[in-house]
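Entry type: protein chain
Record version: 2
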Amino acid sequence: MTYTDELSSLCRKLCCECRAEESLKRHTTFKIGGNCKILININSSNSLKEILKFLKERNIKYFVLGKGSNILADDNGFDGVILKVSKDFSHIEKIGETEIFCTAGTSLSKLCIFAMENSLSGLEFAYGIPGTAGGALFMNAGAYGGELRDVVKSAHYINEACEICSIDAKDMKLSYRHSIFSEQSDWIITDMTFSMIKGDYEQIKEKMNELLNKRKDKQPLEFPSAGSTFKRPEGSYASLLIEQCGLKGMSVGGAEVSTKHSGFVINKGDATFEDVIKLTDKVRKCVLEKTGYQLELEPIILK
């Protein structure tokens, strides 16, 4: 019996959906990527722990994926197991007066709406960010002056020994697009608690709609992408530097520097992994030569 057969049997026991040779195009917002060996939809912390034990004991390559909103996947595929932490592992509840608990696969927008419905303020900035709560904490997602570190209180994660551990926000090393979880590749977030403040429902709703409209007006949401393609360099903005270098609209194959927002590389419909890599390399080289700034890719490369 192959490991794929054994893993499929374990998934049936844990009631986790398991798919062989699944296309990563279907699971990334860039709509780019080849097949993985197996994709498993995680449904609980216990399922995740048991599957991780299986994979580690056999030294099988794996990757944890949320909504795939900050991922660039190789067209050659991923020769391993994708652990998808998304809608099957999505639960939210209010704790006490001002705290919200949610599991890692919870949609960030769904979390924001839940907070609004309970007249709790602090997550308005995150409305419209196309990812999961776990993925957002992993990278300390932020926008419009807010970041996850402003509201997260604590979290649980599975460590390298497949033990469930807890951690307080002060120990998460949260900074710009960074957390302790991005340092520790074997740590996987399972749930988190947010500390909010009481607010007015109508004011929260108005703020969320205002920021969502800003996104729609300024960002190329009509095209597949991985969101902001480059991290903000200290002392400037990636989009400003790219525009100053006259790179808006530059393209390689089906990949293009958006004419709507130069901080986004978009998939015009048939972009390949190599198209995106070649284009971003050209952008980084030009910006470095003309401005002295070294741009760093924000999406995680999955290959």
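Comment: The chain has a mean pLDDT of 96.
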